[in-house]
Amino acid sequence: MDQAAVETALASTALALVDVTRSFSEGERELHILRGVDFAIQPGEMVALVAPSGTGKSTLLHIAGLLEHPDSGDVYVGGINCAELDDESRTAIRRNDVGFVYQFHHLLPEFTALENIMMPQMIAGLAKSEAAARAQELLDYMRMGERSSHRPSELSGGEQQRVAVARAVANAPRVLLLDEPTGNLDPETAHYVFEALQALVRASGVATLFATHNMEIAGRMDRCVTLKDGHIIPLAL
Ligand SMILES: Nc1ncnc2c1ncn2[C@@H]1O[C@H](COP(=O)(O)OP(=O)(O)OP(=O)(O)O)[C@@H](O)[C@H]1O
């Protein structure tokens, strides 16, 4: 494919990584974690990333979410090549177009569930009343409507993660990145959080990359990939 055809193909993706590399120095040794990752997700697609510990899942998610720069290669969000942007533009894309959910929810402890979900919207410039209405709608969607005035410490682990998912999608991002969000939940709760997330993905069309060790959950996504020798390859379950 020539460059113009590649650019056209990339323009329709929600997220694309092109020949992305990343190494770390460990004493004298160079750890070549990502060795030329080529990978794309379409809008509305839900992809599981299943790979052994230490192979580079978090590194990949951080680069995809514009939290870190790769050593080389390009990251496209919504068809825009973010490698060519200054820090301010990258931050704007990260805030508006990318949502994150981590293993530990990182909710702000002194704020209620509703306020935690309002926060990113207000940072993006939405009026308080609009942010509150959208936050309540998302909580209702996650079947957490009754819990809106609870603080994180008053919620169970599964409930906290559902609030974290609602917060991550509050600004209607194009891309949702999840780093083992169900990792510290029991299987039944993990399943329940996944079902709520899946409904939200289907309704919103957000492109989702979900790192997990839970094969039952991975098997329910549109496709699975793994990291092998620094490359992303398809994984058949
Ligand atoms: N900032 C860093 N400096 C040095 N080494 C790093 C750094 N970040 C990650 N690494 C190394 O890169 C490798 C990949 O780390 P990463 O956290 O991406 O793996 P992972 O697949 O997410 O692992 P896990 O499933 O255990 O979370 C590990 O060997 C890690 O020690």
UniProtKB/TrEMBL annotation:
Coiled coil: none annotated. CDD domains: ABC_MJ0796_LolCDE_FtsE. Gene3D superfamilies: P-loop containing nucleotide triphosphate hydrolases. GO terms for molecular function: ATP binding. Pfam families: ABC_tran (PF00005). Keywords: ATP-binding, Nucleotide-binding, Translocase, Transport. Residues 15-237 form the ABC transporter domain. The keyword Transport applies. This is ABC transporter ATP-binding protein.
